[in-house]
């Protein structure tokens, strides 16, 4: 039975009432759709709460106004819902995927992922996308009947494939997995429940993925300016941003800096969202899909920027990489965070009894790959604050990370 007041969906949207189901079958809820249930399970998970104290770019104690993984996730969710609503997709699934997309991230942002990947080089590496799948299928232990959250096929598919297929039609790894192969965690789960790794994801997953890009660009410009890592007029080096700044200055001459920054970032979001809607409408009309599978089988991304905005997005990311992500202040903190996580990995791997009981239970000490993965799981789940406290507990000197 469909609940009262359900929203309209286009024929190519994912239908929660026709879901491919869950690995462990459950009775249908009388009050919520399947995707709404997935969303609620993610919001109530421990991993989601920990996003509050996980770095986006700045460590939590550097200031209360900078984004964390949690605030970033909320911003992505808002944009994903707006895109889904306008394109006739299922808003709840798009929101669910936006809320879950960063669950596998480590403490200290991408620094933590890079560090754990190097520490795990001999044991399959570390990938935040694969880790997110581990979180929702294994590491969350809340329910009496199963490990994980037992999410729908559509949510798991979108979580794994939101950036595109992982395999080509011949079964060879694609994208960033071409050299190292698809992470074992994804392959192992795929053997249990086929996520169709050679196809594109649903329109809802594509909307969540492009929402992530939009949110990143806008809020990293905002945070970088407020942190003083670059000046607003330096952004004129990016033609797209120069045009927006000219528009703001013509309309609001002499506007104070804080308002000028906000006017810029809101225009970045607006122009990007409007472009995705226009390009999405164009590609959908050309494809004329009659089902969600038509989107998956399209052979290319359907919900995306046009070529001109794709170029602007790349130029913004290049500017931020040079002026923000590789700023000396940020690099200093990255180096210190790297030291913290390397120390913790070596310590816990050498002395697993230092981990909490639930993390060392049933862990054979002569199985090095399994031990290394358990240590990586434990560290990946830490917040910035907890990683620092653990380092202080185990070592005489801990970097200040400021």
TrEMBL record:
Family annotation (InterPro entries): dGTPase, dGTPase-like, dNTPase_2, HD/PDEase_dom, HD_domain, PHydrolase_assoc_dom
SMART domains associated with the record: HDc
Keyword Hydrolase: yes
Any one GO biological process: dGTP catabolic process
Top-rank taxon: Bacteria
Key words of the record: Hydrolase
Protein name: Deoxyguanosinetriphosphate triphosphohydrolase-like protein
């Amino acid at each position: 039975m469909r609940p009262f007041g359900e929203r309209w969906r286009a024929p190519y949207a994912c239908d929660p009432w026709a879901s491919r189901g869950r690995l462990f079958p459950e009775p249908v809820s009388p009050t919520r759709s399947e995707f709404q249930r997935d969303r609620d399970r993610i919001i109530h998970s421990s991993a989601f709460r920990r996003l509050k104290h996980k770095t986006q770019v700045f460590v939590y104690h550097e200031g209360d106004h900078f984004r964390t993984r949690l605030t970033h996730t909320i911003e992505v969710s808002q944009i994903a819902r707006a895109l889904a609503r306008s394109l006739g997709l299922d808003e709840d699934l798009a929101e669910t995927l936006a809320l879950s997309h960063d669950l596998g991230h480590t403490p200290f942002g991408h620094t933590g992922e890079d560090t754990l990947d190097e520490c795990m080089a001999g044991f399959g590496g570390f990938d935040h996308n694969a880790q997110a799948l581990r979180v929702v299928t294994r590491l969350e232990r809340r329910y009496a009947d199963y490990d994980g959250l037992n999410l729908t096929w559509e949510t798991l598919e979108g979580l794994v494939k939101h950036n595109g297929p992982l395999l080509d039609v011949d079964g060879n790894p694609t994208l960033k997995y071409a050299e190292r192969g698809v992470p074992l965690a994804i392959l192992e789960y795929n053997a249990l429940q086929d996520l169709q790794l050679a196809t594109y994801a649903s329109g809802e997953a594509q909307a969540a993925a492009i929402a992530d890009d939009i949110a990143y660009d806008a809020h990293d410009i905002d945070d970088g300016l407020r942190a003083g890592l670059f000046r607003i007029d330096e952004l004129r080096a990016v033609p797209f941003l120069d045009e927006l700044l000219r528009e703001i200055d013509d309309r609001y001459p002499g506007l104070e800096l804080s308002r000028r920054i906000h006017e810029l970032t809101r225009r970045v979001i607006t122009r990007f969202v409007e472009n995705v809607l226009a390009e999405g409408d164009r590609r959908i009309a050309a494809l004329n899909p009659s089902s969600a599978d038509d989107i998956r089988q399209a052979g290319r991304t359907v919900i995306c920027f046009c070529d001109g905005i794709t170029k602007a997005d790349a130029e913004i990311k290049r500017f931020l990489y040079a002026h923000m992500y590789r700023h000396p202040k940020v690099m200093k903190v990255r180096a210190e965070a790297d030291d913290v996580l390397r120390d913790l990995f070596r310590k816990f791997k050498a002395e697993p009894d230092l981990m909490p009981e639930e993390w060392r239970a049933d862990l054979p000490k002569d199985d090095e790959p399994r031990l290394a993965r358990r240590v990586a799981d434990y560290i990946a789940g830490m917040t910035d604050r907890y990683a620092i406290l653990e380092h202080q507990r185990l070592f005489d000197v801990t970097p200040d990370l400021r």
